[in-house]
Amino acid sequence: MKHTRLAAALALAVPFSLPAHADELSDLRATVQKLLAKVEQLEAQQMSQKAAAAAPVAAAPAYTGAPAPAGFIPVPGTSTAVKLGGYVQLDGALDIKGDQGRGVSLSDLPLDGSAGASRRNTSTLSARTTRLNVQTVTDTAGGPLKTRIEYDFFTSDGSETYTNSARPRLRHAFGEYGRWLAGQTWSTFMDLDSVGDTLEFNGPTGQSFIRQAQLRYTLPLATGNLALAIENPQTDVRDASGNAVAQDRLPDLIARWTQTGPWGHVAVRGLARDLRAEDGTGHRQADTLGWGLGLSGSLKLGAATTGLYQLNVGKGIGRYIQDANAAVAYDATRVKLSAEKAVGGVIGVQHAWNDALRSHLMWGFTRMDNGAGFGDVASLNTRTNQAYANLIWTATKGLDLGVEYGWGNRRTEAGDKGDMSRLQGSVRYSF
Known about the structure:
mainly beta, 16-stranded antiparallel β-barrel, 22 strands
């Protein structure tokens, strides 16, 4: 305002202070008027800026969902909360006999007399069991909608000579809403709560240990709950004669009933598989029905001790039992699939010595019947056995240190044998 009054006074004084030349006075008045307009424009801008600075700052968007579960971070402006988890792990293994590298593969252990069986005291260090997962929970009118995505790096990629590179490997990618689950996760035929904790990545022979894509519905019952699922079909076929190619048509059908209590839990599981293969020409297709049954659970043996058990049996059950042979063999001569009978199981005990120290002791087995239609079966396994004993110490929150001894063997139809002996240590930083 001060500048406006000064400009106005200057405009009035001009006619009395300058020589009386009409045209010059007219030009000068015009110039002063322009200056006055410019000053008023600047003052208006200043007033606008002051008003904007004095206005209250808009509040950040608020989380709109139900209270987020522990460990989840609400996302502002949404009804979704997110949790990041996983761990970094170093595994070191000394194969006293039977060089296995990063993970034990009992079904193809070096047989006695082979070069692999002659190797002793080979060692490896790896961080590929490291994993990362992201979980979300979204509040909806129908209840929480949950998702989980998880990766690890346990692949055969990369060279150990220089960079030890490894691509991320998808473990889980699924969502849950109400009673429905869709995506990739542990098979419904698998009872995760009956699987013991081993430092060795693959765990004991004979267990059901499989992840795959599926659509699952879980129905609460008066006693326990019943899970029903259709899961990805994958005919594991052996070529008895000809060039066998799997032909998957119908999804695997799986049901699992589970009951829990203060004593532990029990699960009864069933599986039906449509198994198909042809000779590589796209024709001469053969099919058969594969099936499997499972009984598993846990049993409290004391305040600090829990027993674990698992039994899996079937004909054409194949890949649903760890270290079993192929589910079927294709005979191109007869255009026929022959299903293999197999049984596998695990029994173990876990004990907490104190709040920071725990142990697991486990033994697993598989038995296979390679009958007629399997061609030359001399090299096929007829049985495998495996045992683990470990000690795991939680040094502080998020830091576990463990040591484990593992032993295993296999025997073929021809009577050849192979065995392994391994000492392993692990360091895990969880977050």
